[in-house]
Amino acid sequence: MTDTNPTAALLIIGNEILSGRTQDKNLNHIALQLNERGIRFMESRVIADIHEDIIEAVNILRARYSYVFTTGGIGPTHDDITTECIAKAFNVEVVEQPDAINRMQSYYDERGQEMTPARRRMACTPKGAVLIDNPITLAPGYRMENVFVMAGIPKIMQAMLESIMPLLEKGQLMHSQEIVANVSESAIASYLSDVQNRYPDTEIGSYPFNNDGRYGVSVVIRTTDKSALAEAAEAVKTLLRQHGDLVG
Amino acid sequence: MTDTNPTAALLIIGNEILSGRTQDKNLNHIALQLNERGIRFMESRVIADIHEDIIEAVNILRARYSYVFTTGGIGPTHDDITTECIAKAFNVEVVEQPDAINRMQSYYDERGQEMTPARRRMACTPKGAVLIDNPITLAPGYRMENVFVMAGIPKIMQAMLESIMPLLEKGQLMHSQEIVANVSESAIASYLSDVQNRYPDTEIGSYPFNNDGRYGVSVVIRTTDKSALAEAAEAVKTLLRQHGDLVG
């Protein structure tokens, strides 16, 4: 299978983000990792711990993008409903994974602790899922077709993602260059639009900023074509120099 | 109009979030503000600067929730496409807003600067929109029915949100209590589930943490019913004390 333009979406399952209690720290990390592998990160959603909402979002996103990542909701408590929702989305049952059970059993045996039903729950996945190693705690993540189900705790999510990345199709790398100048964005807007039109294979983004009362603009050029990047960057620099000074 | 359970969604329009260049800082602020007004924050999406994607998301979200907030894409440059997309979503044209034009005209006149087409663009909204004041820079946000279109720069977004909040229907306030203990989440999971079943009008969330190698769990109870909150909190405290010590 060769997919030259693999795409991805992230589904953050978490009441705690929507209530404002917690700030998500996973999106940015996943964005940077996907970028390094040339996978286009197209969309991210945060949704509540509601069965129908999770099932619907999983089914929409997995049909639309090459890969879907989910974070959150795979722990042992009653509010961890991701696995039952993924199973429903794929129309399969939830089953125990013998490998995970064995590993957890010996872990708890060693510590003289019980393998409670709640702990067994963390060894369950939708039928057909392939486990994703969790080197930090015991509860694994898993892959179900193009859907990768990960923990929400950043450190664990990052470890899982590291083992997932080599499994993903590589896409064309996106090269980028940032050019910063102390000019007003609205002063250069129409000229910048001309540059964008001259280099249609690049994506030119313009981000105004205000650092301690000093206004300026950061122009970011992104493209898979290195020579287009160099040419567009020259054009942007020339334009910005006509209206102010480059910074950095 | 009385809507006792107003809901809301946030649409973050921004390639720069998906590329990993920028970390969103608006979601958490909006979450906390909505919470204070008793409005249920149900969903947030980050999408790319792609016309069809923006139009589709706006139409889905505005049909589903009482209020939709968008951030990003209302500046003067070619990559600011939010306004034309909102207009298409509502099937109206983009028009200049005389009030905004006048204010900008006198601002630029005072400074001997030109009212360029790019600057005029920031005074444009979909036909029928009501302006939202921007006390920091000149370019206004706007309301189009139940959709509130705001700037992406956090300081400006926050100022716009402040003037929007009094316009929104109040919902039932969600009260919450957090109880932290140094117990393993999997040890209390089944008992916590019993507590949840006994207090169905509360939402009990369980969040494990690891601070410098010390594992513990934070249990958050949320409900609009103050007496249910007090009772459920007592039950959770009793449960956690049976398995470890409360923290704080």
Brief summary of the model shown:
The structure is a homodimer of 248-residue chains. By secondary structure, chain A is of the alpha/beta class.
What does this molecule look like?
Two copies of one chain form a homodimer. With 248 residues, chain A is of the alpha/beta class. Chain A has helices at 15-18, 26-36, 51-64, 82-90, 98-110, 117-121, 154-164, 185-198, 226-243, and strands at 7-13, 40-47, 67-71, 94-96, 124-126, 130-132, 141-144, 147-150, 175-181, 203-211, 214-223, 246-247. In chain A, the strands form three sheets. Chain A has a six-stranded mixed beta sheet, with helices on both faces. Chain A has a four-stranded antiparallel beta sheet with strand order 10-11-9-12, covered by helices on one side. In chain A, strands 4-5 form a two-stranded antiparallel sheet. In chain A, helix 3 packs across helix 4 and helix 8 (185-198) packs antiparallel against helix 9 (226-243). The first copy, chain A, is elongated. At the A-B interface, helix 1, helix 2, strand 2, helix 6 and helix 8 of A face helix 1, helix 2, strand 2, helix 6 and helix 8 of B. Strand 2 of chain A pairs antiparallel with strand 2 (40-47) of chain B.
Distinctive features:
248 residues; 26% strand; six-stranded mixed sheet; homodimer; four-stranded antiparallel sheet; alpha/beta
Can you give the helix content of chain A as a percent range? 25-40%
Number of helices of chain A: 9
Shape of chain A: elongated
**Largest sheet, spatial ordering of strands of chain A:** 2-1-3-8-7-6
Mean pLDDT of chain A: 94
Task: Give the structural class of chain A.
Answer: alpha/beta
Major sheet of chain A, described briefly? 6 strands, mixed
State the distance separating the first and last CA atoms of chain A: 43 Å
Radius of gyration of chain A: 23 Å
Instruction: Pick out the low-confidence regions of chain A.
Output: none
Biggest chain pair contact, residues each? A-B, 61 and 60 residues
Number of strands of chain A: 12
Strand content of chain A: 25-35%
Order of helices and strands of chain A: EHHEHEHEHHEEEEHEHEEHE
Oligomer kind: homodimer
